[in-house]
Amino acid sequence: MTNLLYSSTSFAGVPLRNRIVYPPITTGFADQEGKVSDRMVEYYRQRASGGVGLIIVEPGVVNPQAKLSKFSAGAWADDQIPGMAKLVQAIKNQGARVFLQLCHAGPKANPRVNGVQPSSASEKPFFFKYPTVRLSQDQILSVVKDFVEAAKRAREAGFDGVELHAAHFYLLSAFLSPLINDRIDVFGGDNKGRAKIVQEIIIAIKKKVGQDFPVIVRYHGYEDSADGLKNRDAVELGEIFRAAGADGLHISAYGVPEPELVGIAALPSSSIPSKDHPKAPFVKHAAYIKQYVNLPIIGVGKIIDLLDAEVSLQEGKCDLVAVGRAILADPQWPNKMAANKKVVRCIGCNNCLNSLAKGALDCRVNRGL
Ligand SMILES: Cc1cc2nc3c(=O)[nH]c(=O)nc-3n(C[C@H](O)[C@H](O)[C@H](O)COP(=O)(O)O)c2cc1C
After folding, report:
1. Among all residues, which ones are annotated catalytic?
2. Which of 47, 54, 272 to mutate to test the pocket of ligand 1 (most atoms within 8 A of CB)?
3. Would you state the pLDDT for residue 367?
4. Ligand 1 test: best mutation among 20, 21, 26, most atoms within 8 Å of CB?
5. What atom in ligand 1 is closest to the CA of residue 252?
6. Helix or strand or coil: residue 133?
7. What residue's CA is closest to ligand 1, atom 3?
8. Nearest C-alpha to atom 8 of ligand 1 is from which residue?
9. Which of the chain's ends, N or C, has fewer CB atoms near its CB within 10 Å?
C-alpha cells in the first residue's frame, strides 16, 4: 500500500511535509494577559519536532471578554504579537507549518473570568447557572471586526493561516446550530441565516487581511440530537463557507455520550471520544461532506493508530488527519510511527480535559508534557 500519510501535500495553499495535523488543544499555558509563555513555546516546539505536518495552535481569543478560561491565549491586542511570532518561529524551525485557531467563547465564556455575562446567538444558556445575552446585530458586526483584527495579528506574527472555531458550541458554533440559534433575523432561521456570521468573517478577513491568507473553518459535521445539525446541513454550510472564500474545512462533531453535563451541555454527546467510544467515530461525517464540497478536509476524533489514519486517507474520506491526544501523550508520535517504534499510548482517560478546569493541561501518561 502506498503511504499517503507521510507523503507531502499542499493544504489551503500551504506546503506540508505530511498529512498529520495536531489539532487545537487548549493548554492553559498562556499568561493572564493572554500572552504566549516560554512554557507554551516549548510545548509546541516539542510537538513540531515530533514530525507533525501542520499544527493548529489553540485558540487565540479575539476579545478579552470572550475568554474560554483565565489562561486563554489572546489575539485581541498588538502587544500579543511578539509572543505569537516567537511561537510561530519555534514551530517552523522544526519543519512544521502553523495555523492559529481564532475563537470567541460565546455561551461557554466564564463570567467569573471575563467580568461580563456570556453572549450568544440566543438567550439559551450553555451552563444553566449563567444567564446569557443575545447579541444584537450591531454587536455581531463588532464580533466580525474582532475576528478580522485577530486574523491580521496572526498574519503579522507569521502564522500560515487561521482556523475559525465554529465547533463545540463556542460563539460561532452557537450561531450555526439550530440547538441554540432561534433567531428570526438575518443571522438565524435556515442554514443560510445561521451561517451568515461565519460567512461575513471569511469575506472580511479575505478583504482586509489578504485573499491569499488561508482561512479554514472547524465545525460540526453532525450533532447527535433530534434538532441538531445533520450531514446534509453540514454540506450546505460547507458550501456557503467555500463560496465565501474558505480554503479548507475541519470536521468535528458532537456525538458521543457525556452524561455528567447539564443544560444544553447535556446533549447526549461530546466532541472528545473517550476510551469507552469506538475509534474514529467522526471521520464518516468528514467523508460525507467531502463528497459534495470541493475543499480539502481535515478528519479528526480518536484517530490513534497509523492504520486508521492511513485508511481514512486511502479511502478518500478526508485529505489530512488530525491526531490530538495521541500526540499530546507522545509528541514523537509521527516520527515514531513512521519508524515503527513504540509510542507512549493515549489511554483515553480524558484527564487532559478535566485538568483544564483546574488551570493547565496535564496528561496521565505524559506528566512532563
Ligand atoms: C484537553 C483538550 C482541549 C481541547 N481544546 C480544544 C480547543 O481549544 N479548540 C478546539 O477546537 N478543540 C479542542 N479540543 C478538541 C481537539 O481538537 C480534538 O478535536 C479532540 O481531542 C478529538 O481528537 P483526538 O481524539 O485526536 O484527541 C480539545 C481537546 C482536548 C482533549
Report:
1. 170
2. 272
3. 92
4. 26
5. 19
6. strand
7. 25
8. 26
9. N
Whether ligand 1 lies within 6 angstroms of the CB of 287 is answered as no
- Residue 99, beta-bridge partner list: 56, 161
DSSP state, residue 265: G
Low-confidence stretches of the chain (pLDDT beneath 70): 1-2, 128, 256-269
What gap in Å lies between CA 281 and CA 275, rounded to an integer?
12
Distance CA 26, CA 204 (A): 26
Distance from C-alpha of 133 to C-alpha of 172, rounded to nearest angstrom: 15
HSE, side-chain direction, 13 A CA sphere, residue 229: 36
Residue 171 φ/ψ region, left for φ over 0, alpha for ψ in the -120 to 50 degree band, beta for the rest: alpha
Alpha-carbon distances, residue 188 vs 87, 184, 252, 329 (angstroms) = 37, 5, 22, 40
- H or E element in which residue 363 lies: none
List phi, psi (to 5°) of 35.
-90, 150
pLDDT value of position 268: 44
Q: pLDDT value at position 275?
A: 81
| Distance from the alpha carbon of residue 231 to the mean position of ligand 1, in angstroms | 21
Question: Rounded distance, CA 104 to CA 183, Å?
Answer: 19
The string of DSSP letters for 61-97 reads ESSGGG-SSTT-EE-SSGGGHHHHHHHHHHHHTTT-E
Q: What is the atom index within ligand 1 of the atom nearest the CA of 68? A: 8
Domains and CATH numbers, the chain: 9-358 (3.20.20.70)
Residue 58 CA, ligand 1 centroid: distance in Å: 9
Q: Which atom of ligand 1 is nearest to the CA of 168?
A: 11
Nearest residue (CA) to ligand 1, atom 26: 324
- The DSSP code sequence of 171-199 is HHHHHH-TTT----STTSSSHHHHHHHHH
For residue 34, report the distance from its CA to the centre of ligand 1, in Å. 19
DSSP assignment of 211-235: TTS-EEEEEEEEESSTTS--HHHHH
- Which DSSP string do the residues of 297-317 spell out, in sequence order? EEE-SS--SHHHHHHHHHTTS
